[in-house]
Amino acid sequence: MQPVLKKGHRPLTTSFSYYSNLIEHCFTLKSLDFAKFVHAQLIKIGFNTHTFLGNRCLDLYSRLGTVNDSLRVFDDIIEKNSISWNIFLKADVGFGELERARDVFGEMPKRDVVSWNTMISGYVSFGLFDDAIRFFSEMQKAGIRPSGFTYSTLLSFVSSACRGKEIHASVIRNGADLSNVVVGNSLIGMYGKFGAVDYAFGVFMTMEELDTISWNSLISNCGKSGYQNLALHQFCLMRSTGYSPDQFTVSTVITVCSNLQDLEKGEQVFALCIRVGFLSNTIVSSASIDLFSKCNRLEDSVRVFEEIYQWDSVLCNAMISSYTWHGFGENALQLFVLTLRNNIRPTEFTLSSVLNAVSILLPVDQGSQIHSLVVKSGLELDVIVASSLVEMYAKFGLIDSAMKTFAEIGARDLISWNTMILGLAHNGRVTEALNVFKELLIGGPPPDQITLAGVLLACNIGGLLDEGLIIFSSMEKEYGIIPAIEHYACIVDMMSQGGKLKEAMDIVELMPYEPSGLIWGSLLRACEICRDLRLTERVAEKVMELEPRSPLPYLVLAQVYKMRGRWENLVRVRKAMKEKGVRTVIGCSWIGIKNHVFVFKEDQLLHTGGKDIYLILRLLMQEMEDEGYASRQNEE
Q1: Cα dist. 355→348, 379, 393, 422, 473 in Å?
Q2: Cα dihedral sign for 292, 293, 294, 296?
Q3: Which residues are within 8 A (CB) of 147 and not within 5 positions of it... i.e. 6 or more apart?
């Protein structure tokens, strides 16, 4: 920069090209101070009024300066041309001065396609899509033919498939759909965003020219819309027709393989990434970590992570999420601490994953520490983080804290509503769960399958059989949701616990799904209560078929045979259980004290520090007896 400044102090030259080069150098340096120095020189020799240099200086201030700087330069230009007006209009829009931009647009002696595009993109960037559409209509009425930039701007922010189709019709009328690859790609992306994959394919097939972005958009849309195998097929077609995949392509295809849990195809794409050197890209490497994690190859996820020397939030999020997914909460938390030490700012996805990890096994005070970090990071209002906080507190049994966090969420999405309903249900707060559901129906988004599963779970836990049956029977009519197998499982369990075994069996016979082991397990528990031996044996056989490692059918049969004195059958059941290697599930509980988690198993006589623990337990039992709790339990 110093040599250029020295040139500026030489005897003044009157060369336009010299000052044009100086302005160009200002663009390179991105220095407002140097820009003002050059502008002062232009004013000194009177070149600030010249159209060409004035426009260049106006463009410079529109990028580096302020609104007032741009206005002064614009006013100094004597003979303003359309370029002058367009640059000034763009500056107003860029500085967020939409009202003044409207006034400038109205004063323009001549408006071309650039002027209209500037206003449309300004409205779109500020979320004023209706105003953008209004300007688009006026543009066409004024006889200005929209450009590819016009269409791509509108299509990138279109609010519905219907509105997108209207814009597509305008594209066809203007003959831009076959020749302009940018417009074609924008149309593919727009239709994919709304799940209209068939329309996206229609655009793709009619495009005269394709590029890598075209293929990427189509493959990504197929994957996001649930057509995973179709996405893989398009990837194969892309390569067979001579198009080279880029880093976005392979990261998308690896994600598709993750969703399919297709390790074989995923490893083939992963090998391609290694061969062409894409693995250094953190988007690709994070997708690979997720692939191996979802295919139960956590050790390979760790190996990929360790191969990357430059960490960022995307990469660390993938690894933290993988640890959490596999139940390694402490590993996830340790990695999170390392990211903080490496000055990697946590994102909402980082904090959400860490909160899920904390709620698996770690002490509640660590969850509170993460909550404090959330507040410190300014992400407490983020709906993803807030929903994770609600889930964490609900899992810890701190349901009041969960409800307080939920109440503070401004714009609640369906995930936050579902998390609150399920949290209340699991904590036995049945009435509150149903009240939150009523609030959702009044002022929230439409419920989905998870919402109604949570409501049915609340009815099941609360023994509200009639209310549960009403909700279950009205799912399709009232909410447009076809009951899935989890809804049938909940209603069958509800009826079984309510003594309606025959009605539960009727539902199982009429349901459009093959009953799961969970459903047969609910029926088996009910059979034990009703003491129908033949039915108990039939249902137990079904559970053994579907869940051969489950101890439930063996334990129920053993109890039934024991009660009836059928000792030979009892011996046979215990022998079969031993031969098949079926083990009873040992119940356990845990408590976090400072930085250590103490786990207690039901078959465990002593624990680390056991004497002290059981001494405290005896004191607690004595206090309970003194309070009369034990006597009340006996009376019940």
Answers
A1: 11, 13, 10, 17, 36
A2: positive
A3: 113, 117
For residue 98, give the nearest of 120, 80, 72, 70 by alpha carbon: 120
Cβ neighbours, 10 Å, residue 122: 25
- What lies within 8 Å, CB to CB, of 424 at 6+ separation is 394, 399, 403, 430, 432, 433, 436, 458
For 589, which DSSP code? E
The predicted-structure confidence for 10-43, as pLDDT tens digits, reads as follows: 444 457 677 667 767 676 667 677 767 776 777 7
And the tokens for 305?
Answer: 């992570």
Distance of CA 19 to the CA centre of its chain: 51
Q: Which pTM value belongs to this model?
A: 0.70
DSSP, collapsed to helix, strand or coil, labels residue 522 as helix
Residue 459 — pLDDT band, cuts 50, 70, 90?
very high
**Beta-bridge partners for 600:** 589
What is the rounded CA–CA span in Å between residue 269 and residue 283?
Answer: 14
* Nearby residues of 352 by Cβ (< 8 Å), 6 or more positions away: 384, 385, 387, 388
Q: How far apart are CA 51 and CA 445, in angstroms?
A: 55
* CA 509 vs CA 487, 488, 532, 533, 565: distances in Å: 15, 11, 18, 20, 32
The number of C-alpha atoms within 13 Å of 522 and in the hemisphere containing its C-beta is 25
Contacts of 342 (CB under 8 A, 6+ apart): 311
CA distance 74 to 58: 6
d(CA 305, CA 286): 8
Three-class SS state of 147: coil
Q: How far apart are CA 590 and CA 578, in angstroms?
A: 29
> In whole angstroms, how large is the CA radius of gyration of the chain?
34
- Look over the chain and give the mean of its residue pLDDT values, rounded to a whole number: 81
Token pair, residue 340, equals 């903080």
Cβ within 8 Å of residue 460, ≥6 positions away: 468, 490, 493, 494, 497
Residues 6+ apart with CB under 8 A from 481: 447, 448, 449, 452, 475
> Cα 216 vs. chain centroid, distance in angstroms?
20
End-to-end C-alpha distance for the chain, whole angstroms:
89
Q: Are 62 and 84 in contact (CB under 8 A)?
A: no
Other Cβ atoms less than 10 A from the Cβ of 79: the count is 9
Q: Where are the alpha helices (DSSP H) in 157-262?
A: 161-173, 181-193, 197-206, 212-224, 228-240, 247-260
Q: Residue for token digits 């083939």?
A: 268
